[in-house]
Design brief:
By secondary structure, the protein is mainly beta. It has one domain: Thrombin, subunit H (Beta Barrel). It is built from two helices and nine strands; from the N terminus they run βββββαβαβββ. The strands form two sheets. A seven-stranded antiparallel sheet has the order 4-1-7-8-9-6-5. Strands 2-3 form a two-stranded antiparallel sheet. The radius of gyration is 15 Å and the shape is globular. It starts with 7 loop residues before the first strand and ends with a strand. 20% of the residues are buried.
Length: 121
């Protein structure tokens, strides 16, 4: 059954710093995106997900990654490229990203990463 699930490409661009432009607007800077792999990324839909995220649950996705391989590598506000979106052709890292990491939760043998869809993407 699992082999029939469509896996999605996943790239992550790590958040580096917030800078200010000439107009005093905050601009986030990101590191070069890294290809994580083809992963089983799922929409949120359960009752606990709806209770936690409310109306924005339809804009959320989740992936479980190997604890030993990815512990400490991701954090909130990192950007993600999901659903066949790639960083190819970007002039500034993060321009093509369509999700941001909302939370990273360490579990027993896996790390659960929750993504929120970026506005206008």
């Amino acid at each position: 059954m699992r082999s029939k699930w469509k896996k999605k490409t996943l790239y992550i661009a790590s958040f580096l710093t917030d800078d200010m432009d000439d107009c005093k607007q905050t601009i986030a800077t990101y590191d070069e995106p890294v290809f994580i792999g083809l992963e089983n990324i799922q929409q949120l839909s359960g009752s606990t997900d709806i209770e936690e995220y409310g109306n924005k649950v339809s804009k959320m996705q989740k992936v479980l990654l190997d604890y030993n391989k990815y512990l400490g590598k991701f954090k909130e506000n990192d950007l993600a490229y999901i659903e066949d979106v790639t960083p190819e052709g970007e002039e500034v890292y993060g321009d093509n990203a369509n999700y941001k990491i909302d939370s990273v939760r360490n579990q027993n043998r896996k790390i659960a990463i929750y993504f929120e869809k970026l506005p206008n993407k």
